Amino acid sequence: MSQKSEKLIDKKGLRLDGRKPNELRPIKIEVGVLSNADGSAYIEQGKNKILAAIYGPKEVHPKHLALPDRMILRCRYHMAPFSVQERKSPAPSRREIELSKVIREALEPAIFLEYYPRTAIDVFVEVLQADGGTRCASITAASLALADAGIPMKDLVAACAAGKVDDTIVLDLMDTEDKIGAADVPVALMPNLDAITLLQMDGTLSLEEFEQAVNLALEGCRKIYAMQKEALKARYVNVKEVEE
């Protein structure tokens, strides 16, 4: 579909789903949703529905893969066959393998890997419903699942994308904007340390537009970070109530 065939922003400056250019989609986050995992989180961001589960730290098998000075973080990002309109194959696609690596590299700087030498942590991300921006929502959920598992972390990682749609820089692209828009800039941030752990770009932007997109994405990350902290607090209030 060509970019000109469909207007993504109307005359009032509103997007297809009624949002302003700098608005996030509605977000719902829950921590501790899976009883059999060491840590877990669930996120709904727009129509995205994503589960993240953590298992570990645990012994590495086969043993020769263990590292003497640090823990290994392993990540599997997977989209359920029913998560998109046209059923996808359950086998891991090249994109899923790439995003597994991207998510792992975005989370690694936040974890004290040296605390658990010769061990591994497995991060499983399952996309139940996809609607654009799944890599960022997955990082946000996986970071919370790690915190829920009690893994020592320097900070939570919050992720959000900005992009260009109809010559306008917008925040948190949904599926149609992602596919038809001119560019997409996913960013992951450790807000407390003000450190970016992921920065990618797909599409074409001028230097000025790129800076604008990154700044808007960082703003989105900080808003999501506040929601992450609230979700963690809610989890521990629940745990405390159960124990009492």
Which keywords apply here?
alpha+beta; single chain; 244 residues; globular; five-stranded antiparallel β-sheet
Structure at a glance:
The protein is α+β, with helices and mostly antiparallel strands. The protein has four helices and ten strands, in the order E-E-E-E-H-E-H-E-E-H-E-E-E-H.
CATH homologous superfamily - what is it? GHMP Kinase, N-terminal domain
Overall pLDDT: 94
Helix and strand element order: EEEEHEHEEHEEEH
* Cα-atom radius of gyration: 18 Å
How large is the count of helical segments? 4
Give the second-level CATH assignment, the architecture.
2-Layer Sandwich
Describe what you observe in this structure:
The chain is an alpha+beta fold. It has one domain (18-243): GHMP Kinase, N-terminal domain (Ribosomal Protein S5, domain 2). The protein is 30% helix and 29% strand. The chain contains four helices and ten strands. The protein has helices at residues 94-107, 134-148, 175-180, 207-243; strands at 27-31, 39-45, 48-59, 72-79, 119-129, 158-165, 168-171, 183-190, 195-199, 202-203. The strands form two sheets. The protein has a five-stranded mixed beta sheet with strand order 1-2-3-5-4. Strands 6, 7, 8, 9 and 10 form a five-stranded antiparallel beta sheet that branches. The longest helix is centred in the last third of the chain and has 37 residues, at 207-243. It starts with 26 loop residues before the first strand and ends with a helix. The mean pLDDT is 94.
